[in-house]
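Work Package 3 (structural annotation) set out to generate three-dimensional models for the target panel prioritized at the project kickoff. During this period the team completed the workflow that converts sequence records into discrete structure tokens, so that structures can be stored uniformly alongside our sequence database. As a representative example, we reproduce one entry of 66 residues exactly as it appears in the project archive.
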Amino acid sequence: MHLEVGGVLFPVNQLGPDSAIVEATAAHSPGPARLLVAVDDTLTVRQAFLPEGIPPGPFRTRLALV
């Protein structure tokens, strides 16, 4: 499972109903994102929005699926 922000993929360690724990190497401002989930060779892509952006490091960030 990954979160794509501005063409960069970040691993998602944990996903909740309105948040995700993401390992980011740099901070990202609020904006659009995509959640990519691969299960049994099937890729599901969901559009998302990061209302608070992503701080660097392994942090929980708010995520809104659209």
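The chain has no helices and seven strands.
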